[in-house]
Amino acid sequence: MCACVGGERDSIMGNVSFYWDYYNPDSLVKSAYLDGYKYNGFKFIPVVTINGDTLPMDGFQYTPTNFMYYGDITNIDNGDKCEFFVDYGEGKGEATDTMPGTFRITSPDTTYVLHKGNNLSISWSSATGTGWYWVDVRVDYLYIDTAGSSEEFELNLDTIIEVTSLTMNASRVFPGYVDTIISGDGEINVEAVNGPMVKLGQKGNIDGDAVGFFWCRYETKEVWFGIEQIAARPRKDLSAEIRKKHLELLRKFASGN
Q1: Is 247 inside a domain boundary?
Q2: Whose CA, among 30, 58, 186, 252, lies 20 to 30 Å from 146?
Q3: For 154-181, what is the mean pLDDT?
Q4: Nearest-angstrom CA–CA distance, 13 and 257
């Protein structure tokens, strides 16, 4: 839920998101999402347009003070200007940004095997017109510890950076109590984002009668890797869980700023 900021001003959180369908890897999914709050309620359901086209209501939730809906879009490509406009009857809000360009994770690749004692170095090509990147890394393996017990190690990194590489030190990926690796794998997800960076005190970019935040986001194809052995592609779409987590974090961020 987005926070109300005084008077009758509508508070809005919106984003346009591109990502690759996990089960149909050549299919790029394009969608837009809108979340709004008005302390004394809306007289009618707000109308949203993206580059002049009305956003369809493929999913919708509504209460007297809140609304949320999302829909698939077709009129924007990577690198295009994205004009976001909301009309809620008593006022209007708008924002303009650019959909990030395409990019890919360049290292590691899906044939990579990470061995105990080595750093995990990650890099990706630059996405044209991007403000920042949202990076998620998962590491999961079975091991025997220094006391001889079999255990499972899990590490999840969620970070925001403005550069196109990061390194996870071996001491973080393989703590000192790990003696022998049995088997494991990892996955890397990188999202290019335009719009206000998610940090304390950040100001919104919605203009007009409303206040709030708007983002354009492009998630490149995920990369998985093996730990001490070649890994197969994960059966579960973990990237969908990450997108859900990111969206909820954006909603909480918008409500607190």
Answers
A1: yes
A2: 186
A3: 97
A4: 11
Residue 4 belongs to some domain of the structure? no
Same structural domain for residues 16 and 97?
Answer: yes
Asked if residue 244 belongs to a domain, the reply is yes
Residues of the domain holding 176 = 105-190
Supply the pTM of this predicted model.
Answer: 0.91
Each residue of 54-112: pLDDT tens digit? 998 888 887 777 888 899 999 999 999 999 999 888 889 999 999 999 999 999 999 99
Q: From the CA atom positions of the chain, what is the Rg in Å?
A: 21
Rounded Cα–Cα distance for residues 226 and 233 (Å)? 10
CATH code of residue 216: 2.60.40
Under 8 Å between Cβ of 73 and 29:
no
